[in-house]
Specification:
With 149 residues, the protein is α/β, with parallel strands linked by helices. The protein has a single domain (5-148), classed as 3-Layer(aba) Sandwich (Rossmann fold), CATH 3.40.50.620. It is built from 6 helices and 5 strands. Strands 3-2-1-4-5 form a 5-stranded parallel beta sheet, with helices on both faces.
Length: 149
């Protein structure tokens, strides 16, 4: 199996950072392009984003400017982590909308052949009823998906 373009959705969670680790190692092994994607969902902040903002001493109010600052901080952290694993120039992207749909749209529009995604998000009951982002991406993607716990 050859990997040419690996996409990692990042949200500031530990599962997403584990996904960055695995994707960075795969990108090095296969000499693949690595893209780090953060999706801002309808100007609302998840509890995970609020915790990240608090840890980084960033504003936690969900206005556009603050959300953009947090998105940049999340991507900067993921980029630094990828760099420590030998990925010199990962591409970064911020999108707005439904996370699962934006991940899938980005992958299709940009020739992504592998998505490495953290298994994080809704609780067990809510995830079962509504479906988590990682479940939706795995189910609907036409490319290889690797879920990291």
């Amino acid at each position: 199996m050859k990997m040419n373009h690996i996409l990692v959705p990042v949200d500031g969670s530990q599962a997403a950072l584990k996904a960055v680790d695995l994707a960075s190692n795969l990108a090095g092994k296969f000499e693949a392009k690595l893209t780090l994607l953060h999706v801002v969902e309808d100007m609302t902040m998840s509890d995970e984003l609020k915790r990240f903002a608090e840890l980084e001493h960033l504003p936690s109010e969900p206005d556009k400017m603050h959300v953009d600052v947090i998105a940049k901080a999340i991507l900067d952290e993921a980029r630094r982590q990828a760099a420590t694993l030998g990925v010199a120039q990962p591409q970064t992207e911020v999108r707005r909308g439904s996370p699962a749909l934006e991940i899938l749209d980005y992958a299709e529009a940009n020739g992504v052949d592998t998505i490495v995604i953290g298994n994080e998000g809704l609780g067990r009951i809510e995830g079962w009823l509504l479906g988590s982002v990682s479940h939706k991406v795995n189910y609907l993607s036409t490319c290889t998906c690797i879920t990291v716990k």
